[in-house]
Amino acid sequence: MNLMQLGDGIKAKGGIDELFDQRLRVLDAIENLDKPSVVTMYGNCLGGGLELPLVYHFRLAATEGAQIGLPELDLGSVPVWGGTPRLERCVGRDQALDMILRARKLTGREALEIRLVSEIHPLTSLKSAARDLALELAAMPRVSVAGVLRTVIGAQERTLAENLALERRSIHESFASQDALERMNAFIEKRPPRFGQQE
């Protein structure tokens, strides 16, 4: 099957935009989770292989062997799953343009230098590092974490007043949660809080 036939097949089923929109809805759902998400990046994380990790809250890459980028211009195309705006949000305009227009493929260390990933680890310990991070995040107060994520994700698209209102809402929800009671009990009992275990 050639590209022309593939394109005709997509048109017959509702058009290529329908396919793109479906993928974008999945990525938006991950990005807007009310729990932190962690992804590991190793091997070829190119094109869609980077656009998917861009929606995760924490990205951990392998120190060795990772190739990370949006090299669609090498194929005469452009990123189609939100890679351009999300990469710009992550690393800034200059770094995003440098990566995309030059079809650059970064190593894990280079991705860390421009803050595209938050940590790098040897491949042999990458998954255990991600698991440790996930456990650390899971021990945080659930309602407060959801409030922080709701306030931070998409903050660039909202006004300061809108963001402050979201933050205030999160504060009220946090104060009214079981986590607040556990925090107070832990303080009185002089012990670390055990968030999430009391529900």
Short summary:
The chain is mainly alpha-helical and 199 residues long. 54% of the residues lie in helices and 9% in strands.
Q: Mind sketching the topology for me?
A:
Layout: H1 3-12, H2 16-31, E1 38-41, E2 44-46, H3 48-51, E3 58-62, E4 67-69, H4 83-91, H5 93-101, H6 108-113, E5 119-121, H7 123-138, H8 142-152, H9 160-175, H10 178-188
Parallel strand pairs: 1-3, 2-4, 3-5
Helix pairs in contact: 4-5, 8-9
Task: Report what the structure shows.
This protein has 199 residues and is mainly α. The chain folds into two domains: 33-138, 2-enoyl-CoA Hydratase, Chain A, domain 1 (Alpha-Beta Complex); 142-188. The chain is built from ten helices and five strands; from the N terminus they run H-H-E-E-H-E-E-H-H-H-E-H-H-H-H. The protein has helices at 3-12, 16-31, 48-51, 83-91, 93-101, 108-113, 123-138, 142-152, 160-175, 178-188; strands spanning 38-41, 44-46, 58-62, 67-69, 119-121. Helix 4 crosses helix 5 (93-101) and helix 8 (142-152) runs antiparallel to helix 9. Residues 1-6 have low confidence and may be disordered.
